[in-house]
Fold this protein.
Amino acid sequence: MKKVMTLLAMLAIPFAMMAQTKFHDVELNEATGAVKSITQNMMGRDIVTIFTQDGKMQREGMSDPVYDAEGFMQSMKMTMMGNTSTVKYVWENGKVASQTMEMMGNDVTMKMTYNDKGALASQSMNMMGQDVSVPFTDYKYDDHGNWISRKTTMMGREMEQTRKIEYFE
Protein backbone atom coordinates (compact mmCIF):
# COMPACT_ATOMS: atom_id res chain seq x y z
CA MET A 1 0.00 0.00 0.00
CA LYS A 2 2.85 2.35 0.84
CA LYS A 3 4.41 1.73 -2.60
CA VAL A 4 1.09 2.48 -4.33
CA MET A 5 0.71 5.78 -2.44
CA THR A 6 4.29 6.76 -3.23
CA LEU A 7 3.75 5.95 -6.92
CA LEU A 8 0.53 7.99 -7.01
CA ALA A 9 2.26 10.93 -5.30
CA MET A 10 5.13 10.80 -7.80
CA LEU A 11 2.70 10.72 -10.73
CA ALA A 12 0.77 13.67 -9.31
CA ILE A 13 3.82 15.95 -8.92
CA PRO A 14 4.31 16.71 -12.65
CA PHE A 15 0.60 17.45 -13.06
CA ALA A 16 0.58 19.74 -10.02
CA MET A 17 3.65 21.56 -11.36
CA MET A 18 1.97 22.06 -14.77
CA ALA A 19 -1.21 23.34 -13.13
CA GLN A 20 0.78 26.01 -11.30
CA THR A 21 1.97 27.64 -14.53
CA LYS A 22 -0.31 30.48 -15.60
CA PHE A 23 0.62 32.55 -18.57
CA HIS A 24 -0.40 36.22 -18.63
CA ASP A 25 -0.77 36.50 -22.39
CA VAL A 26 -4.49 37.31 -22.02
CA GLU A 27 -3.53 40.37 -19.94
CA LEU A 28 -0.90 41.25 -22.57
CA ASN A 29 -3.86 41.56 -24.96
CA GLU A 30 -5.81 43.86 -22.61
CA ALA A 31 -8.27 41.21 -21.47
CA THR A 32 -9.01 39.07 -18.43
CA GLY A 33 -10.71 35.76 -17.74
CA ALA A 34 -11.07 32.49 -19.63
CA VAL A 35 -10.44 33.98 -23.08
CA LYS A 36 -10.31 31.46 -25.93
CA SER A 37 -9.67 33.89 -28.79
CA ILE A 38 -9.62 37.58 -29.71
CA THR A 39 -10.31 38.69 -33.29
CA GLN A 40 -9.36 42.28 -34.06
CA ASN A 41 -9.39 44.03 -37.42
CA MET A 42 -6.08 45.76 -38.13
CA MET A 43 -5.57 47.63 -41.38
CA GLY A 44 -8.43 45.78 -43.06
CA ARG A 45 -7.20 42.35 -41.96
CA ASP A 46 -8.58 40.18 -39.15
CA ILE A 47 -5.85 39.26 -36.66
CA VAL A 48 -6.84 36.22 -34.60
CA THR A 49 -5.10 35.50 -31.32
CA ILE A 50 -5.82 32.10 -29.78
CA PHE A 51 -5.23 31.18 -26.12
CA THR A 52 -4.82 27.84 -24.39
CA GLN A 53 -6.81 27.26 -21.19
CA ASP A 54 -3.72 28.16 -19.14
CA GLY A 55 -3.51 31.54 -20.94
CA LYS A 56 -0.68 30.92 -23.44
CA MET A 57 -1.02 32.89 -26.68
CA GLN A 58 -0.69 31.69 -30.28
CA ARG A 59 -0.74 34.14 -33.19
CA GLU A 60 0.30 34.02 -36.82
CA GLY A 61 3.85 35.34 -37.17
CA MET A 62 4.68 34.94 -33.46
CA SER A 63 7.64 32.79 -32.37
CA ASP A 64 10.23 32.29 -29.64
CA PRO A 65 8.29 33.64 -26.63
CA VAL A 66 10.35 34.09 -23.45
CA TYR A 67 8.58 34.09 -20.06
CA ASP A 68 9.67 34.95 -16.54
CA ALA A 69 9.04 32.60 -13.59
CA GLU A 70 5.54 34.06 -13.00
CA GLY A 71 4.43 33.48 -16.61
CA PHE A 72 4.74 37.08 -17.86
CA MET A 73 6.03 37.29 -21.43
CA GLN A 74 9.34 39.17 -21.56
CA SER A 75 9.94 38.98 -25.31
CA MET A 76 8.89 37.33 -28.55
CA LYS A 77 9.64 37.52 -32.24
CA MET A 78 6.98 38.80 -34.64
CA THR A 79 7.12 38.37 -38.41
CA MET A 80 4.95 40.79 -40.38
CA MET A 81 5.15 41.39 -44.13
CA GLY A 82 8.36 39.36 -44.32
CA ASN A 83 10.18 41.32 -41.59
CA THR A 84 11.03 39.75 -38.23
CA SER A 85 11.35 41.94 -35.17
CA THR A 86 11.93 41.23 -31.50
CA VAL A 87 9.32 42.70 -29.16
CA LYS A 88 10.27 43.21 -25.50
CA TYR A 89 7.88 43.93 -22.63
CA VAL A 90 8.20 45.64 -19.24
CA TRP A 91 5.44 44.80 -16.76
CA GLU A 92 4.25 46.77 -13.71
CA ASN A 93 1.41 45.68 -11.42
CA GLY A 94 0.21 43.00 -13.85
CA LYS A 95 0.01 45.37 -16.85
CA VAL A 96 2.38 46.16 -19.69
CA ALA A 97 4.15 49.43 -18.84
CA SER A 98 6.16 49.56 -22.06
CA GLN A 99 6.85 47.64 -25.22
CA THR A 100 9.99 47.99 -27.34
CA MET A 101 10.13 46.85 -30.96
CA GLU A 102 12.79 47.19 -33.58
CA MET A 103 11.53 49.20 -36.56
CA MET A 104 13.73 49.98 -39.56
CA GLY A 105 16.90 49.33 -37.55
CA ASN A 106 15.83 51.46 -34.57
CA ASP A 107 14.28 50.48 -31.25
CA VAL A 108 10.92 52.18 -30.75
CA THR A 109 9.53 52.13 -27.22
CA MET A 110 5.82 52.55 -26.64
CA LYS A 111 4.78 53.53 -23.10
CA MET A 112 1.32 52.68 -21.81
CA THR A 113 -0.83 54.78 -19.46
CA TYR A 114 -3.95 53.33 -17.86
CA ASN A 115 -7.12 55.02 -16.60
CA ASP A 116 -8.68 54.56 -13.14
CA LYS A 117 -10.65 51.53 -14.41
CA GLY A 118 -7.45 49.80 -15.58
CA ALA A 119 -8.15 50.31 -19.29
CA LEU A 120 -5.47 51.63 -21.62
CA ALA A 121 -5.80 55.44 -21.67
CA SER A 122 -2.95 56.15 -24.10
CA GLN A 123 0.18 54.88 -25.80
CA SER A 124 3.06 57.26 -26.35
CA MET A 125 6.27 56.91 -28.35
CA ASN A 126 8.99 58.91 -30.00
CA MET A 127 8.85 58.54 -33.78
CA MET A 128 11.88 59.98 -35.57
CA GLY A 129 12.38 62.67 -32.94
CA GLN A 130 8.71 63.56 -32.57
CA ASP A 131 6.65 62.55 -29.52
CA VAL A 132 3.41 60.90 -30.56
CA SER A 133 0.54 60.06 -28.21
CA VAL A 134 -2.41 57.86 -29.14
CA PRO A 135 -5.39 58.27 -26.75
CA PHE A 136 -8.12 55.65 -26.24
CA THR A 137 -11.65 56.68 -25.19
CA ASP A 138 -15.32 55.67 -25.32
CA TYR A 139 -14.82 52.07 -24.27
CA LYS A 140 -17.66 49.54 -24.66
CA TYR A 141 -17.41 46.26 -22.75
CA ASP A 142 -18.82 42.76 -23.07
CA ASP A 143 -20.53 40.78 -20.27
CA HIS A 144 -17.11 39.59 -19.03
CA GLY A 145 -15.76 43.13 -18.56
CA ASN A 146 -13.42 43.08 -21.57
CA TRP A 147 -13.45 45.89 -24.11
CA ILE A 148 -15.02 45.19 -27.48
CA SER A 149 -15.01 48.73 -28.86
CA ARG A 150 -12.99 51.90 -28.25
CA LYS A 151 -12.15 55.09 -30.07
CA THR A 152 -8.71 56.45 -30.81
CA THR A 153 -7.22 59.37 -32.69
CA MET A 154 -4.23 58.85 -34.95
CA MET A 155 -2.67 61.57 -37.09
CA GLY A 156 -5.69 63.80 -36.47
CA ARG A 157 -8.15 61.13 -37.57
CA GLU A 158 -10.67 59.48 -35.23
CA MET A 159 -11.07 55.72 -35.59
CA GLU A 160 -13.02 53.02 -33.83
CA GLN A 161 -11.31 49.78 -32.91
CA THR A 162 -13.48 46.72 -32.42
CA ARG A 163 -12.80 43.16 -31.43
CA LYS A 164 -14.68 39.93 -30.88
CA ILE A 165 -13.82 37.76 -27.90
CA GLU A 166 -14.67 34.06 -27.45
CA TYR A 167 -14.46 32.44 -24.03
CA PHE A 168 -13.91 28.92 -22.72
CA GLU A 169 -17.12 27.51 -21.24
Observations:
- Residues 24 and 72 are 5 Å apart (CA to CA).
- Residues 2-20 form the longest helix (19 residues).
- The first strand starts at residue 35 and ends at 42.
